[in-house]
Amino acid sequence: MAVLDLASILGLILCAVLVVYGIVFGNPIDYLGNFYDFASILITFGGALCCVLIMAPDLKTFFKYLKSFTLILKVQKINEEETIRQIIALSNIARKEGLLALEEAANSIDDDFLKKGVLLIVDGTDPELVRSILETELNCIEDRHAEITGFWDSLAAMGPAWGMIGTLIGLINMLRQMQNPETIGPQMSVALVTTFYGSMLANWICIPISTKLKSKNASEIMVKELMVEGLLSIQAGENPRVIEEKLKSFLSPARKAAFSQEEGGENIG
Amino acid sequence: MAVLDLASILGLILCAVLVVYGIVFGNPIDYLGNFYDFASILITFGGALCCVLIMAPDLKTFFKYLKSFTLILKVQKINEEETIRQIIALSNIARKEGLLALEEAANSIDDDFLKKGVLLIVDGTDPELVRSILETELNCIEDRHAEITGFWDSLAAMGPAWGMIGTLIGLINMLRQMQNPETIGPQMSVALVTTFYGSMLANWICIPISTKLKSKNASEIMVKELMVEGLLSIQAGENPRVIEEKLKSFLSPARKAAFSQEEGGENIG
Amino acid sequence: MAVLDLASILGLILCAVLVVYGIVFGNPIDYLGNFYDFASILITFGGALCCVLIMAPDLKTFFKYLKSFTLILKVQKINEEETIRQIIALSNIARKEGLLALEEAANSIDDDFLKKGVLLIVDGTDPELVRSILETELNCIEDRHAEITGFWDSLAAMGPAWGMIGTLIGLINMLRQMQNPETIGPQMSVALVTTFYGSMLANWICIPISTKLKSKNASEIMVKELMVEGLLSIQAGENPRVIEEKLKSFLSPARKAAFSQEEGGENIG
Amino acid sequence: MAVLDLASILGLILCAVLVVYGIVFGNPIDYLGNFYDFASILITFGGALCCVLIMAPDLKTFFKYLKSFTLILKVQKINEEETIRQIIALSNIARKEGLLALEEAANSIDDDFLKKGVLLIVDGTDPELVRSILETELNCIEDRHAEITGFWDSLAAMGPAWGMIGTLIGLINMLRQMQNPETIGPQMSVALVTTFYGSMLANWICIPISTKLKSKNASEIMVKELMVEGLLSIQAGENPRVIEEKLKSFLSPARKAAFSQEEGGENIG
Amino acid sequence: MAVLDLASILGLILCAVLVVYGIVFGNPIDYLGNFYDFASILITFGGALCCVLIMAPDLKTFFKYLKSFTLILKVQKINEEETIRQIIALSNIARKEGLLALEEAANSIDDDFLKKGVLLIVDGTDPELVRSILETELNCIEDRHAEITGFWDSLAAMGPAWGMIGTLIGLINMLRQMQNPETIGPQMSVALVTTFYGSMLANWICIPISTKLKSKNASEIMVKELMVEGLLSIQAGENPRVIEEKLKSFLSPARKAAFSQEEGGENIG
């Protein structure tokens, strides 16, 4: 089961709490009802969603994009150290028992990308071709991720835009019929609610999701680049110690030190 | 006949419905007439279109750009899996009957780009030259697409700009003659209508079209890059299984799995 | 004589007509005089021009930049098909009579860039050096064009900035002396005129010019890249049919078809 | 002990002094209390922090990012000249006593990156591999730094966004209940305080920190690139004078002259 | 002595004249005093300067950046034609008397970069190393220039930001104490003065300086790239006529024609 991502969930909920607090306590005479207006919800959220619907390749993809929201709630299962250890283990097998012995080892690999790479090596594929196939795969993964973050970026731009359109509609209507000066305030208040909705949609939901997904993508691509380097080194028959040195370059100084220590411990044990 | 693109059409229509809803029901005393003003339409849409007309290479190209609107209404006929199968079939022919046998096969190819590539191979063109010719073609396709999306991006920028110019004109006129305080509201209302028009032009029409066309371009270029890789592999006489492995890197994991299964099924059948 | 560029001229004039229309008919009691204010003209246009004057390398270059305005009024004399035909003709001469025979042919070439390339080939310059010289020339042409479009981009940014500065000056003065409430409207009206001027300067003049010049630059560079490819193919002694195939990659499908047909027709004729 | 960074500390404090001055003396009847509002603090700072919390990989990293604030208070201990001297000394050792003699010298090197490079050379690692390992390390350092500056950039964008959301909440509440015209001013005043907070968060704290960290990163990467060049030159057995000439290219003219003079002085002494 | 840069000085002064004109004559009852407010000056200019102080590496560099203002007042002493002539002369010497004869010629070269390049050639440095050393130097020059323009860009962004902060402070204070409606106008007027200051700082000073320095940097880098090309051609022993042809690619058509004519004249003379 996927572990929940505390940072994202906490941030999402606290934001909502703060806004409700601001609405209720910012001014003693306020109440949440001021911020509920059905027509405003329709024009802002509806308008923004319709526009990203226009941009979507098809309806199915549109809902797939929307569902990507859940991705930020789960902790990413990426462990650079574990991957490095796995690659070093593979390089030891290859050195001792030959490249063909990797076929059996490949069965216990969870990561599809690493598995595919190992099988390409076992098949005796040309190193240049291995790199080309894995890099094409990497580029296509990045393209697919960029499509999803592009969806949230578009929604983040459309939210405030439709919020402003809603406010313009409210203002134009209000200004046309100003017979009763007492209703001007409440009418402007309702007109501004769409701007509020649009701003919340962008800043509370879309921008954080997009940024988080971009950061998750960067981590994933980094581990996959580490795999490509490791696989090509295994195929070239490089020394496991050199491979370890090479792959440790991907770690931060603190994690590098921890990794080396642990490795040392394992060597002793 | 081209299949209609439900996502684009639905989004476009729903947006308009939502805006009309916002105009009519946002405030019980409103009516659509508040949002119709001939001078405002002229200054906003006219101004924005005139400015992109200045930017256009010539009148004919300007209308061609405007007509590209219809592109987003049709579903793109791109099928990566079909293309991969076609290339594998071609590679089987080339392996069994030689590169010259591809000439006949080329006749049944619909895609002009793939056909041109196959004919270049049949002509015995140098692989480096084949890649160079196909990549020049790819770059020129991208340049032409970028011109069209650039047109919609310019219009998306000009819409709000001319909306603001229209509002400025209205405000300057209104402020100069404020004898009657009762007309201030309606006059400001009319002044704001141009801002509303400009914002709708950008957010309802131009930005979604531009984003959709960019995404369609990305899909098309991706399939064409897949073709280039496949064609060069055929010319190099690579093994059809290796070519399949290589081209499958362009697919997402889900489609990759579906493709492999289907292939397996075909093999059995 | 240069042919006038209808799209640019029409767009420029129509824009002005629309603005005058908006000023005069947007509100029955308006008149153009509201939009003429000498101090506003000085501060907006003067301020913006002075700032791009600060940026200019020297006074002479500043006026050269301003004069580049006339470039958008003339239709660009670029004809890819004609250039391709010219290069194929040159390659036929080179094939039949040798590279030295190109010297005579060079005399009838109008385009300086193509001429220089042909003469470099005649001189027996090393192919690598030919490419390097022509690409340096291409880069320097792009740099010079980028300077000019940069000038219009700077002016497009300075227009609204000085318009806002003018409006701020007007507002600050007005707010300090508000004894007579009846003058507030007209004074604000005058203050807003500078924002109107700045917005017109950017959206009516500078942005369209800059975009048009960028598009003209792209066409010119594309034809020159086509020339470089063609020249290097001639020097490499490639087959005229292969050269044609290569250069046709620069054309759009429609123009490619038209070109092939025409060529066929010529062959018959 | 780290030396304090006078420029950063002075700037940070002076900014606060100026704002307090502006608040207190900008208008004789003002007082700091106008600018303290608990709900406003919560919504602006809380909202902005919650949103960057959503973006953070996990809680621990979030606090690590926040703590990076202290980095700008310390002067960076980077000394290009010292590094160049160190590398020349190493190249002299390598020339006279062989590459293996560098192992002992490596012990006295403080910088981990330089030390790792020297040890790779001592191990007889292939030059291409040395460059690849060091450049991977360099890229990963840059990626980690970019994550931190990205955090401050996100906070700089979220500050004004949540300031505006707070102001919208205040305005919507105020406009709904405008029975008492006398309270409109103070209520709008409170509503604007969040915009003030957001603007201060971005312009006083986040943007300067982000810019400073980017500049520190650039200096660090530059010295590390200098080390890579130097290490590869040592491994290639280049002449120490040539190495000095090469590495001096990284210095500004003034520092280059000072360095040469000093070196000359040392040679004499 | 450096020649004064008329374009920059004229532009800077005219801008100030125009603003004073706008302040004094924009409205008959205005006077310059409306635009002087000590607290506003402190908060806008002080705040912006403090923030770029936070970003500066140290106090000394901060003042060095500020002093770079004077750079735009001096005409740049760059003469591509003169440099080309100098390089052709050097190539003639190298051809006739050998590379070593360049040592004496190097003494009469003013430009440090060209001199260093010639001396590297005289020392018999490997061509690849000469290119690498000169390009490192070129990159470091660009980095140093980018730091300075980055300083002015940061100040250009901080000016309007602190102008807005000052205006917010003024508005918040004013709105809190609105007992006397007659003081609202003048108080808002003072509040807006900071926005005016910030906008002037950015648009009158910082953006023009930054743009001018970027254009000066581009010219300088272009001449230095011309030098690198020339030096490597000299070292490769290329024909002076070919070198001239190569370097003339850096000139615009008009200057190329003028240069060739002059050269012809010299040959005759």
From TrEMBL, chains A, B, C, D, E:
<dbReference type="GO" id="GO:0006935">
    <property type="term" value="P:chemotaxis"/>
</dbReference>
<protein>
    <submittedName>
        <fullName>Putative membrane protein</fullName>
    </submittedName>
</protein>
<dbReference type="Pfam" id="PF01618">
    <property type="entry name" value="MotA_ExbB"/>
</dbReference>
<dbReference type="GO" id="GO:0005886">
    <property type="term" value="C:plasma membrane"/>
</dbReference>
<dbReference type="InterPro" id="IPR047055">
    <property type="entry name" value="MotA-like"/>
</dbReference>
<dbReference type="GO" id="GO:0071978">
    <property type="term" value="P:bacterial-type flagellum-dependent swarming motility"/>
</dbReference>
<dbReference type="InterPro" id="IPR000540">
    <property type="entry name" value="Flag_MotA_CS"/>
</dbReference>
<feature type="transmembrane region" description="Helical">
    <location>
        <begin position="38"/>
        <end position="56"/>
    </location>
</feature>
<keyword id="KW-0472">Membrane</keyword>
<keyword id="KW-0812">Transmembrane</keyword>
<feature type="domain" description="MotA/TolQ/ExbB proton channel">
    <location>
        <begin position="106"/>
        <end position="223"/>
    </location>
</feature>
<feature type="transmembrane region" description="Helical">
    <location>
        <begin position="154"/>
        <end position="175"/>
    </location>
</feature>
<keyword id="KW-0813">Transport</keyword>
<feature type="transmembrane region" description="Helical">
    <location>
        <begin position="187"/>
        <end position="207"/>
    </location>
</feature>
<dbReference type="InterPro" id="IPR002898">
    <property type="entry name" value="MotA_ExbB_proton_chnl"/>
</dbReference>
<comment type="similarity">
    <text>Belongs to the MotA family.</text>
</comment>
<keyword id="KW-1133">Transmembrane helix</keyword>
<keyword id="KW-1003">Cell membrane</keyword>
